[in-house]
């Protein structure tokens, strides 16, 4: 199918999210849409999928102008979409989810499950998308859930498949599987629109790359372009992708974790007998696929979740039973994984959020009275120092971009003297320009002699920051390795392999992304 | 303390498409709701009016009669309402008197709102405050000045106990404050009814539930020749205190943070349970103060009707006041004026006093459904205010 978007424009109030966008997608092409968060990629795809209506412009399929006013119209025209957040019913089986909305019945309105199962098998065999049609969606891993979403789109005879940030939730080996599947689609003549901001993936699979910045197409690029070139197009200026950092000058052990076990609310062992040391002046990165106990581990470090067994000490002092406030005052800085949920109060101003865990101290309060002058002065300083882009310090933080919100959180935590900085997903949902800045600040904090623990699911980030890497899998630390460990080995360890197994396997079966290094 | 000293920082996020500051948008919505309520009230006046009814029996012969009768009915009623509320010194004094406990009760609800709690229990807290204040007022005999101060403090403590209990239960056991406050309202009203049958409270020689009159030393001094008393000044002081607490103190910072995002507050080292307890303690104290204004200011003996519906009206006052101290004072004044004017309206035009209750209810209905008001008044900009507060209160 030949798909053409011509002059598509969409504004929300005074914000022009898409400004006269032209895009041509040829049959059997993997077309990458590259752009930062908020560049307008999702708006564009939502117009294509009928979730939004363009203010002006045309969508042309096989030379004919069409109007797509709903997702069902998009499906009718052969457009399928796999959303970043899956739209599946957890308590239904794979087959039930796929037949949802187009249930086939035998006489008397009885569901024809057999036919649905057969259809799922047929599609999964055809494209090598292995799923069990009878499995409940809530029981299968995220990577397989994504396959179900893809099969759902295929079951609608999609000829153009839109994948919105499909790799965000996948392990490195799952990403490799996905790349293989995408190539098969391409051979079968299905076009793919692949939305992402990850440069390595783009280079690995794209046939054609369109870069979008601030709602406009800024140009096309070839997959052979360097990552630096792509980043520059995306951001609009040259960016350093690798932080310039010296060898760590590690000192005494600041954070000592021994036999830490955390039982989560559902009674599962989320953190299982973990030992971990972080020394002053080094960055230890905790690598792992989302949901392998990293969240619970950091929450236990901050006293936000109860510890079932084990001990935590900071600078030689046991803090296992201390409250969150005591730990913060003892010198732990914390950048939580979900900043909007735990990191700031959205309706509070930038100034207020910058003292969220400091307002009780001098000079921000005297007795029970707040000193608003000092709070504002502090805000002006931090805004200047961290280059926080806000129109006014009285604006609510929720009105800032993701990168600036994260700068507020980091600025606050770094504005007191720290022994340990725990930063979870410090650059998730943050634009490339801010990533560079945030990484630099974290490295500078290390150079000041603070022990730093980074939790990240992004191998690029781990490679950029870590002095040592601890890999976590199902609540355990499967290995602590050097910063120079190859990507493929880390990927395998993230799936539970030991260091030795990973080494062997990685040399025998290199992955697409790994072999690019 | 005017609205423009209120910093923008403590407002919920407002889409600034209109270019108006957040408080102006909220004030516009509130004003529109009042206008709409008056229209609804007019319809009810017309339906209930005898002259309109008789004129409508020959509507098709002379429709003008019906229309002019309707206009007269509405005009007379609203004129009486207006005169009764603000037409001269006495009506104004009466309006302020009526507003006094509503302001304090409204502050009790507003403060809890800002901490993410829906305090339905102002009624119970007010009753317990009134019980404490009344007992000190009639059972003790102290010199001028001191007696009033002690009685008021007793009332504040009574309310604080009743409210603080809710916060403590929520903090310790997670009990939902809406359920607990509703139940404690029942406990308070039956406690009052029972107390008024005991020898400690019942006036000697009486068989009905009424206490002795509080000592004149324990009564709020009159501010003018009418019912207006010093309690009104205390209500304004209380509003200023709540404003300072919320916007200028570390305690208020914590309360607002917990109200807006308990998870981030906990992560920042605050104790969410402590914030809930403090908020309910102070809220109860404010409602208790309203109780003292009832029993030491206007009622004088304690009866089982001491709270009337003040505690419940306080919720609507806080809703209309958008959970801010300034808004709550303005809303309290409006409701006080409606109460005072309603009496005059009933006297002069035979329009039922309950019409003012309908007006109050309709105002809040429109305020609580800003989308509805906007669909009627298209010029109003979008806002995010009360709905968010309300929803949070229930989910808290």
TrEMBL record, chain A:
GO cellular-component terms in the record?
A: plasma membrane
Which keywords label this protein? ATP-binding, Cell membrane, Membrane, Nucleotide-binding, Repeat, Sugar transport, Translocase, Transport
Q: Known PROSITE patterns for this protein?
A: ABC_TRANSPORTER_1, ABC_TRANSPORTER_2
GO molecular function annotation = ATP binding; ATP hydrolysis activity
Q: Which Gene3D superfamilies match?
A: P-loop containing nucleotide triphosphate hydrolases
Topology in the lipid bilayer is annotated as: Peripheral membrane protein
InterPro entries for this protein: AAA+_ATPase, ABC_carbohydrate_import_ATPase, ABC_transporter-like_ATP-bd, ABC_transporter-like_CS, P-loop_NTPase
Q: Pfam family example for this protein?
A: ABC_tran
Location of the ABC transporter domain:
3-239, 255-499
Tell whether Mitochondrion is among the UniProt keywords.
no
The places in or outside the cell where this protein is found are: Cell membrane
Q: What is this protein called?
A: Simple sugar transport system ATP-binding protein
Q: Please tell me the species this chain comes from.
A: Kribbella antiqua
Automatic annotation (TrEMBL), chain B:
Q: What is this protein called?
A: Simple sugar transport system permease protein
What's a GO cellular component annotated to this UniProt protein?
plasma membrane
Coiled-coil ranges (or none): none
Q: GO MF annotations for this entry? A: transmembrane transporter activity
Organism, by scientific name, is Kribbella antiqua
Read off the InterPro entries from this record.
ABC_transp_permease (IPR001851)
Q: Which UniProt keywords apply?
A: Cell membrane, Membrane, Sugar transport, Transmembrane, Transmembrane helix, Transport
Compartment(s) where it occurs, according to its Swiss-Prot or TrEMBL record = Cell membrane
- Main location group: membrane
Q: Which residues cross the membrane?
A: 23-47, 117-138, 144-166, 178-196, 228-246, 275-295, 315-340, 352-373
Indicate how the chain sits in the lipid bilayer.
Multi-pass membrane protein
């Amino acid at each position: 199918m030949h798909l053409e978007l011509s002059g598509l424009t969409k504004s929300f109030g005074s914000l022009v999210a898409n400004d006269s966008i032209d895009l041509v997608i040829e049959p059997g092409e993997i077309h990458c849409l590259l752009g930062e968060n908020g560049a307008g990629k999702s708006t564009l795809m939502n117009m294509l999928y009928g979730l939004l209506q363009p203010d002006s412009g045309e969508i042309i399929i096989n030379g004919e102008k069409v109007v797509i006013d709903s997702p069902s119209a998009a499906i009718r025209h052969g457009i399928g979409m796999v959303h970043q957040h899956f739209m599946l019913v957890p308590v239904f089986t794979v087959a039930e989810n796929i037949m949802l909305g187009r249930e086939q019945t035998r006489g008397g309105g009885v569901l024809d499950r057999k036919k649905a199962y057969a259809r799922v098998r047929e599609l999964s065999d055809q494209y090598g998308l292995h799923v069990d049609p009878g499995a409940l969606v809530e029981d299968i891993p995220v990577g397989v859930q994504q396959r179900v979403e893809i099969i759902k789109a295929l079951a609608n005879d999609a000829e153009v498949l839109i994948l919105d940030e499909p790799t965000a939730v996948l392990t490195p080996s799952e990403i490799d599987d996905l790349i293989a599947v995408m190539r098969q689609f391409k051979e079968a003549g299905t076009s793919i629109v692949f939305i992402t901001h990850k440069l390595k993936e783009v280079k690995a699979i794209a046939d054609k790359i369109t870069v979008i910045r601030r709602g406009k197409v800024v140009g096309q690029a070839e997959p052979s372009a360097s990552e630096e070139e792509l980043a520059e197009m995306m951001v609009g200026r040259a960016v350093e992708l690798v932080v310039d950092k010296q060898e760590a000058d590690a000192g005494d052990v600041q954070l000592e974790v021994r036999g830490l076990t955390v039982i989560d609310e559902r009674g599962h062992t989320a953190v299982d007998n973990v030992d971990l040391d972080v020394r002053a002046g080094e960055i230890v990165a905790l690598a792992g696929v989302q949901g392998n106990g990293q969240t619970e581990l950091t929450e236990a470090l901050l006293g936000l979740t109860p510890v079932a067994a084990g001990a935590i000490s900071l600078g030689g002092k046991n803090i296992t039973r201390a409250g969150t406030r005591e730990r913060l005052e003892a010198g732990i800085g914390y950048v939580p994984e979900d900043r909007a949920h735990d990191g700031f109060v959205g309706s509070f101003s930038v100034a207020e959020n910058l003292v969220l865990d400091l307002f009780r101290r001098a000079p921000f309060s005297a007795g029970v009275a707040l000193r608003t002058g000092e709070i504002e002065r502090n805000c002006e300083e931090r805004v200047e120092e961290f280059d926080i882009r806000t129109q006014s310090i009285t604006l609510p933080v929720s009105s800032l971009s993701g990168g600036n919100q994260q700068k507020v959180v980091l600025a606050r935590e770094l504005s007191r003297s720290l022994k340990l900085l725990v930063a979870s997903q410090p650059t998730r949902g943050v634009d490339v320009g801010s990533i560079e800045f945030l990484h630099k600040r974290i490295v500078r904090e290390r150079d000041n002699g603070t022990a730093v623990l980074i939790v990240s699911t992004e191998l690029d980030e781990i490679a950029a920051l870590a002095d040592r890497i601890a890999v976590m899998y199902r609540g355990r630390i499967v290995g602590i390795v050097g910063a120079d460990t190859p990507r493929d080995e880390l990927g395998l360890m993230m799936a539970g392999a030991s260091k030795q197994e990973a080494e062997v396997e990685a040399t025998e079966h290199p992955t697409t992304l790994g072999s690019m290094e | 303390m005017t609205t423009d000293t209120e910093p923008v920082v403590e407002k919920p996020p407002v889409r600034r498409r209109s270019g108006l500051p957040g408080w102006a948008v909220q004030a516009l919505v509130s004003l529109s709701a009042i206008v709409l309520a008056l229209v609804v009230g007019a319809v009810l006046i017309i339906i209930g009016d005898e002259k309109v009814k008789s004129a409508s029996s020959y509507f098709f012969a002379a429709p003008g009669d019906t229309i002019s009768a309707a206009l007269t009915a509405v005009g007379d009623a609203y004129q009486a309402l207006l005169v009764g509320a603000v037409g001269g010194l006495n009506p104004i004094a009466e309006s302020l008197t009526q507003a006094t406990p509503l302001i304090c009760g409204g502050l009790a609800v507003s403060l809890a709102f800002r901490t993410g709690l829906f305090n339905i229990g102002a009624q119970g807290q007010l009753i317990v405050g009134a019980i404490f204040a009344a007992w000190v007022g009639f059972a003790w005999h102290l010199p001028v000045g001191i007696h009033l101060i002690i009685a008021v403090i007793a009332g504040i403590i009574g309310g604080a106990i009743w409210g603080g209990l809710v916060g403590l239960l929520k903090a310790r056991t997670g009990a939902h404050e809406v359920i607990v406050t509703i139940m404690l309202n029942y406990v308070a009203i039956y406690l009052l009814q029972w107390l008024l049958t005991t020898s400690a409270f019942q006036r000697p020689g009486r068989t009905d539930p009424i206490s002795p009159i509080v000592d004149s030393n324990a009564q709020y001094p009159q501010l003018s020749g009418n019912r207006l008393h010093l309690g009104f000044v205390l209500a304004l002081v209380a509003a200023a205190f709540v404003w300072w607490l919320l916007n200028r103190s570390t305690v208020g910072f914590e309360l607002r943070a917990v109200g807006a995002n308990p998870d981030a507050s906990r992560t920042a080292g605050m104790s969410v349970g402590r914030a809930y307890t403090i908020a309910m303690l102070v809220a109860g104290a404010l409602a208790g103060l309203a109780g003292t204004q009832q029993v030491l200011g206007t009622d004088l003996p304690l009866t089982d009707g001491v709270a009337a519906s003040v505690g419940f009206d306080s919720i609507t006052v806080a809703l209309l006041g958008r959970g801010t101290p300034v808004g709550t004072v303005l809303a309290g004044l409006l409701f006080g004026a409606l109460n005072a004017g309603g009496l005059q309206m009933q006297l002069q035009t035979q329009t039922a006093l309950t019409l003012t209750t309908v007006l109050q209810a309709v105002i809040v209905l429109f305020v609580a459904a800003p989308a509805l008001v906007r669909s009627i008044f298209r010029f109003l900009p979008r806002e995010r205010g009360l709905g968010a507060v309300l929803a949070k209160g229930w989910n808290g």
